[in-house]
Design brief:
Order of helices and strands of chain B: HEEHHHHHHHHHHH
CATH architecture of the largest domain in chain B: Orthogonal Bundle
Shape of chain A: flat
Largest interface: A-B, 60 and 53 residues
Strand content of chain B: under 5%
Number of strands of chain A: 0
Structural class of chain B: mainly alpha
Distance between the termini of chain B: 31 Å
Strand order of the largest sheet of chain B: 1-2
Number of domains of chain B: 2
Largest sheet of chain A: none
Distance between the termini of chain A: 8 Å
Radius of gyration of chain B: 23 Å
Oligomer: heterodimer
Number of helices of chain A: 11
Number of helices of chain B: 12
Helix content of chain B: 55-70%
């Protein structure tokens, strides 16, 4: 049953994946600017070199033919070679660990801080701690990450010296503050989501029934209400992982991290379409598989949801 | 940030449940003089809850205030945001210039007041664009179902799979502007770019609402009475499926404003020639500047956060008021 569902979902991914790659490939193709500009020092590149360059990278072929060749290579695991003679797979391989580390820290913060704050607020609805969580999460949601990042770098990195100011080496220790900044928005959403669901479930009939039949408050709360309340939060955390990889562009820039966000940013500015498409294709794949995993976990956690 | 972007799946589900059309049909004793049983609509009910909440008035007044500032900045300051004097560079706030001066010696108060226009225009324009595109396509997909639904849903999936911020940066690179591009074209470019990656959110919401409303008895009744599909959609299905769209669009409006500022921070959004909060924040957030002239960052950032907060709060208050489970 589950196997059938997974196969169907995997099949449905194919058109989405092809469409997303086509879209991003087209955008990279349509980017104005000449990749040979500046390759020959101060002077214009000789026409013979430009012709060789365009033929070498297949830029002289029609768009659809280029795309078709790209897709064929893609399914062989080859993301191409960029204009700097490096394979895109290599460029990605040296940077993905850093960005994944960053995202893992952000996800851990979501689970620990976000859920704890949400549960605290939910069980003390209407009290001070509830208002504190509701208001502070709204403020975090309203402050754009680039402002929050710059401020955090200033306050915690430079003034208080609690964390590293930049994270050029990409060690876990250095990535702590950037990870927290990257996750801040999602922490706030997780806290609010957990709070709302907990409040809703604490008033649900099944919790009242559990208490009425003599179950202790702790057990009725812990086993019944809490477990059900965390289901949407867990799925939200899973879904946020994909978005984070895109949001890393800003965080990596502020903290000078050599990750995927920085690579994408640089490849756009240098008109390096091959690297850009490769990086985004992998991002889209991660996003799609995270969504699938989240949907599968969902039906495990909540047996009422069946994938028939 | 793209998910400020936080595309809120769970929120959306909560919304859909909240706007079950049958909820409005519950009969309550009216407060009319005839003491007649009268049906109160969901909207009237929600309005009753909302107007007793101070948060609603704070958010609504704040949003209205920023809209007025955007529409008529000259009412709030007589200083030209573009006439700058390097002699005043980075001066701290004083009575003469209550927000101080920036690097170029421009009056930060004037720049903050005039910067509202770009943010509000981008936010409203994008929310409208995404609501129209997503709303129309979502209604079509939800109403027709079948292969039309399958094709449109896959199309939405494709745009959904690319994070908003990432997609926006790439499209910005594809649509270059020059320094003499007219103001509205520059604004529309951002609206277009954010709308292209923002509509799937609204599409999914509208599609789900329409699918939920379509089998309702009042729709079937109208169909049985011979209403044609267009009339069925425009006067029976859409009005009953519209509330979640308006609520989410209001919340998204705040998100779009923040994303625009982020694009300007990265240097691909609004050009420096346009007075905008994003560009001013970007100019002020170099590390040395935050240390030596924090007022440069503080005021435009505070204005931006307050605007984003106003629209997100407004949307959330309305959503909570519509959700009977949270009362």
């Amino acid at each position: 049953m589950m196997g059938k569902y997974v196969v169907r979902r995997l099949l449905m991914m194919i058109p989405t994946f092809l469409g997303a790659t086509l879209l991003i490939y087209f955008l990279a193709y349509a980017m104005p600017g000449d990749p040979t500009a500046g390759r020959c020092g101060d002077r214009q590149c000789p026409p013979s070199y430009v012709a060789w360059f365009r033929a070498h990278y297949g830029l002289d072929k029609p768009f659809l033919e280029q795309y078709w060749m790209y897709i064929q290579n893609l399914f062989r695991g080859d993301l191409g070679v960029n204009y700097y003679q490096n394979t895109v797979v290599h460029e990605l391989a040296i940077r993905y660990p850093t960005t994944i580390k960053l995202a893992v820290i952000a996800v851990l913060c979501e689970i620990i801080i976000g859920m704890a704050a949400g549960i605290l607020a939910g069980i003390s609805k209407g009290k001070f701690i509830d208002s504190l969580v509701t208001v502070s999460t709204l403020v975090v949601i309203a402050i754009p990450v680039f402002v929050l990042g710059s401020l955090a770098q200033m306050v915690f990195g430079i003034k208080l010296k609690w964390f590293a100011v930049t994270a050029g080496d990409g060690t876990w220790r250095q990535l702590l503050l950037p990870g927290l900044v990257l996750g801040s928005l999602y922490i706030a959403y997780v806290a609010r989501l957990t709070r709302t669901n907990l409040i809703e479930n604490l008033r649900a009939d099944y919790v009242r029934t559990a208490k009425a039949k003599g179950m202790s408050t702790t057990r009725a709360f812990g086993v019944h209400a809490l477990r059900n309340s965390l289901v949407p939060s867990i799925t939200y955390i899973g879904a946020s992982f994909g978005g984070m990889m895109g949001g890393a562009i800003v965080t990596e820039r502020i903290f000078n991290i050599n990750g995927i966000g920085g690579l994408i940013w640089r490849s756009i500015n240098q008109r390096d379409g091959t690297t850009l498409v490769g990086a985004v294709v992998v991002l889209v794949l991660i996003y799609m598989f995270m969504t699938l995993i989240v949907d599968i976990i969902y039906s495990w956690l909540d047996p009422r949801i069946s994938h028939e | 940030m793209s998910d400020y972007l936080g595309r809120k799946k769970a929120t959306r589900e909560a919304l859909l449940e909240a706007t079950d059309p049958t909820a409005g049909d519950i009969l309550e004793s009216g407060e009319t003089e005839q003491r007649k049983e009268s049906a109160r609509s969901l909207g009237a009910d929600a309005w009753d809850v909302m107007r007793r909440r101070p948060l609603f008035w704070v958010a609504a007044l704040l949003a209205l205030f920023f809209i007025i500032v955007a529409a008529a900045p000259q009412l709030f300051t007589s200083v030209d945001p573009r006439s700058c004097d390097l002699a005043y560079s980075r001066l701290k706030p004083s009575l003469k210039a209550i927000f101080g001066y920036d690097m170029q010696g421009c009056n930060i108060f004037a720049r903050t007041v005039y910067g509202a226009r770009a943010s509000i225009l981008v936010g409203m324009g994008t929310a409208l664009f995404a609501a129209l595109l997503g709303g129309v396509l979502g209604t079509i997909a939800g109403y027709l179902g079948g292969w039309v639904d399958a094709v449109l849903s896959r199309l939405a999936d494709i745009f959904f799979a690319i994070p908003l911020l990432l997609g926006a940066i790439v499209v910005m690179a594809v649509l270059p502007i020059t320094l003499d591009t007219p103001y509205l074209v520059v604004i529309f470019r951002i609206v277009l770019v954010l709308g292209i990656f923002g509509w799937p959110n609204i599409f999914r919401l509208m599609r789900a609402s329409v699918i939920q409303v379509k089998p309702a008895e009042f729709v079937q009744a109208a169909r049985a009475l011979g209403a044609n599909p267009l009339r069925l959609i425009s006067s029976h299905i859409v009005p009953n499926a519209l509330t979640p769209l308006i609520v989410v669009s209001t919340i998204d409006l705040g998100t779009y404003i923040a994303t625009e500022a982020t694009l300007s921070f990265l240097g691909v959004g609004l050009p420096r020639t346009i007075v905008s909060w994003g560009a001013d924040i970007s100019a002020a957030s170099a590390l040395g500047l935050i240390r030596n002239a924090p007022h440069m960052l503080l005021f435009p950032a505070a204005a931006l956060c307050l605007t984003v907060l106003a629209f997100i709060m407004l949307g959330e208050v309305v959503r909570d008021a519509l959700d009977p489970k949270l009362r």
